[in-house]
Design brief:
By secondary structure, the chain is of the alpha/beta class. It is built from 15 helices and 11 strands. It folds into 2 domains: 4-61 and 317-412, Aspartate Aminotransferase, domain 1 (Alpha-Beta Complex); 70-313, Type I PLP-dependent aspartate aminotransferase-like (Major domain) (Aspartate Aminotransferase, domain 2, 3-Layer(aba) Sandwich). Bound molecules: pyridoxal-5'-phosphate. Pyridoxal-5'-phosphate binds at residues 56-57, 115-117, 142, 144, 193, 197, 222, 224-225, 245.
Length: 414
């Protein structure tokens, strides 16, 4: 790795905005892995003094995506006529088609909504359920897939059963068993999370979907921590619906998200927001899951830029991207464990993804998180402990800085 000064100059040179085609040529010509990932790092505008390591919450976008949003927003401001904006319908469809292809499903099953929260609420408000029906939720679900079910239960007299998984699980079989024992003949839905944002635990979702579907139970998977981090095939996963945010691991525009609903389940889901286009299956423009993104006036530039984000991911390739995310997370967890820190997140590959949480007493989390940012320039989070989520824009040097920072502040871990 180059010395800090020359690294800065190097990054500056690599950091100029380039088209995705030019970026593709540079990546293809990269002489080694280090150069490859430094070239990717150069496509993100953040400065070395303030390093993002909180992909579970929000990611920066690569320059090509950020410029697509800015350029198209300017275009609308210059001419917001229906005539000028007509082109956005095609761009939205291009974004949808690219996202669907990456997820192994059809474009008609994808709605581009605003975020995971909205997508989760569309499912928990829209699934037809009646008094006495049971819904099983994981206690590590985000509030939008957890408290949101309680709110619905209070209105419609549903029974919500919260399942807790062991803090240090022995493996997939144990996790499957915990959910399986909660099923009863009255269970109608299972609402889970692919990877927890508070522990980093990855559930065996394919097996859980299979188990539930054999009993006719609807399965919703919150994928906020997996879209853009892991290679996904939703058809193979077997879920009925899946939600995610583009502004997290996908590094897409802010306030864009996705809701996938399997083709045969789309007709039965009620709207959360009723706007023009809802339920109008006769109109070819709102066919399939498009009815879930009918939310009034949308940010057309943002939705168009989801397509540029998909192109950026495709340049790297989902398999290579996943391997890098897992490699960074593994290195970080190993280094933190070597310091004597207690990990909340599992280290077994099958139960892991990109979310790394280090145990920190609640009373000390804020100080550790603040000082890591102020004194070491590493921006993490306090969810579940000290949460650090390195992504493709992070370098090994960033990991070393994070670990050095935690080492200096080690007295706050106990
Ligand atoms: C698992 C999970 N679901 C849902 C959300 C909500 O995401 P958003 O705020 O983008 O809707 C988050 C946010 O961190 C999350 O981690």
């Amino acid at each position: 790795m180059a010395a800090p000064q020359s690294r800065r100059t190097f990054l500056h040179r690599l950091g100029a905005a380039v088209s995705l085609t030019e970026l593709g040529s540079r990546l293809a010509a990269a002489p080694n892995e280090e150069f490859y990932w430094i070239t990717i790092r150069g496509q993100f505008a953040f400065e070395e003094a303030r390093v993002p390591m909180n992909a579970a919450n929000l990611c920066p976008s690569p320059r090509a995506v950020a410029e697509r949003v800015t350029g198209l927003t300017r275009d609308i401001d210059l001419d917001c006529s229906f005539q000028n904006r007509a082109k956005f319908a095609g761009m939205l469809e291009a974004s949808r088609a690219k996202v669907a292809a990456q997820l192994g499903v059809s474009a008609d099953e994808i709605a581009l909504v605003r975020n995971t929260s909205e997508a989760n609420n569309t499912i928990n408000n829209g699934l037809p359920l009646k008094a006495g029906d049971e819904v099983i939720v994981w206690d590590q679900n985000h509030p939008t897939n957890n408290v949101a079910w309680d709110v619905r239960a209070a209105r419609y007299h549903l029974v919500i059963k919260r399942v807790a998984t062991p803090q240090h699980s022995s493996g997939a079989d144990e996790l499957i068993g915990v959910f399986e024992r909660a099923f009863t003949p009255r269970t109608r839905a299972l609402a889970i999370t692919h990877v927890s944002n508070v522990s980093g635990l990855r559930l065996p979702v394919r097996e859980l979907c299979e188990l539930a579907r054999r009993r006719g139970i609807f399965v919703h998977v919150d994928g906020a921590q997996t879209w853009g981090a892991l290679q996904l095939d939703l058809r193979a996963m077997g879920c009925d619906s899946y939600s995610a945010s583009a502004h997290k691991w996908y590094c897409g525009p802010k306030e864009a998200g996705l809701l996938y609903v399997r083709q045969d389940r789309i007709p039965e889901i009620w709207p959360n927001t009723v706007a023009p286009g809802w339920g109008n299956d006769a109109d070819p423009d709102v066919k399939g899951a498009r009815k879930f993104e009918s939310l009034g006036q949308r940010d057309d530039a943002c939705l168009a830029a989801v397509g540029a984000t998909a192109d950026f991911h495709q340049l790297i390739g989902p398999a290579r991207l996943e391997a890098r995310v897992l490699e960074l997370a593994t290195r970080l967890k190993e280094a933190l464990a070597e310091l004597g820190g207690k990990l909340v997140s599992p280290r077994e590959p099958a139960l892991s993804a990109g979310v790394c949480v280090l145990a920190v007493p609640p009373a000390r989390r804020q100080e550790l998180f603040d000082r890591l940012y102020r004194e070491h320039g590493i921006a993490g989070a306090t969810n579940g402990g000290l949460r650090l989520c390195p992504h493709i824009y992070n370098t090994p040097d960033h990991l070393d800085r994070a670990v050095r920072g935690v080492k200096t502040l080690r007295h706050l871990l106990a």
